[in-house]
Amino acid sequence: MAKDYQELLDLLDLQKLPKHVGIIMDGNGRWAKQRRRPRLYGHRQGAKSVRSNVELGVELGLKYITYYAFSTENWNRPEDEVKGLLKLLKEHLIKEIPNLNKQNIVLKLLGSEQGLDKGYLNEINDMARQTHRNNGMQVNIAFNYGGRLEIVEAIKKLSPKEIAELSPESFGDHLWTAGIPDPDLIIRTSGEMRLSNFLLWQSAYSEFYVTNTLWPDFDKKEMLKALLNYQSRTRKFGGIA
Ligand code: IPE
Ligand code: IPE
Ligand code: MG
């Protein structure tokens, strides 16, 4: 018989949680299609999954969760969908900031400013700033994010001296994720087994978990299953077990 939420929670070792979980939230379109509804309906439903996922993260005591919300390649989608996604992020933030503050959450936006208008950027950055005095879990939204662009932008800003002194350990300090530990676990919903330009540099030693569940259906129980699966892995970092 399938385990219920409490049974899964009892199996989880709270001392061995991943410090940073990255989530590629995929499948909103397919979820909507199954219901013969427009793709944006799926994206709106996906935003609700984020809320419950964040809640669970706080309950468990996770330190960092990064949600992939819009990639630098997602500009290739129809204009209506792109506009809808930009609007959804802003509206979701307006609605959620009080909630995030109540949960002592620090919100950070990771991504490029390219293609986004100044007014819009100011609004979303202002909202994130409203959480910066908190010191609980950190929620990163990878928005207009692309791993390749992140790396190229970092390199372009380096001085000749910094380039001469660069090392694999220090390079991360120049990325948008500076100060954030590498993700221990990367979850992708909807069965696709690819990174789609998510945290390329940072995922060198991440554990991957792919589920066929579509993002709007990824509830707290699904998250517990992913975390339990992570806890069954042996991480070796090139060494031996
Ligand atoms: C993920 O859902 C959300 C974004 C990429 C913004 P999709 O919109 O990619 O859903 P599918 O892959 O078409 O089902
Ligand atoms: C990855 O999903 C990007 C986000 C979840 C924001 P996509 O649906 O855009 O990825 P591909 O196109 O299937 O690789
Ligand atoms: Mg997709």
List the helices and strands and how they pair.
Layout: H1 5-11, E1 20-24, H2 28-34, H3 39-60, E2 64-71, H4 79-102, E3 106-110, H5 118-129, E4 138-145, H6 147-156, H7 160-164, H8 168-171, E5 185-188, E6 207-210, H9 220-231
Parallel strand pairs: 1-2, 1-5, 2-4, 3-4, 5-6
Helix pairs in contact: 1-9, 2-3, 3-4, 4-5
The structure holds 3-methylbut-3-enyl trihydrogen diphosphate (2 copies) and magnesium ion (MG).
The site of one 3-methylbut-3-enyl trihydrogen diphosphate has 10 residues, from helix 2.
Could you explain the architecture of this structure?
The chain is α/β, with parallel strands linked by helices and 241 residues long. It has nine helices and six strands; from the N terminus they run αβααβαβαβαααββα. The protein has a six-stranded parallel sheet with strand order 3-4-2-1-5-6, sandwiched between helices. The chain starts with a helix and ends in a 10-residue tail after the last helix. The protein binds 3-methylbut-3-enyl trihydrogen diphosphate (2 copies) and magnesium ion. One 3-methylbut-3-enyl trihydrogen diphosphate binds at residues 25-30, 70, 74, 85, 190.
Number of domains: 1
Low-confidence stretches: none
| N-end to C-end Cα span | 33 Å
State the major sheet. 6 strands, parallel
Number of strands: 6
Helix content: 40-55%
**What is the CATH top level name?**
Alpha Beta
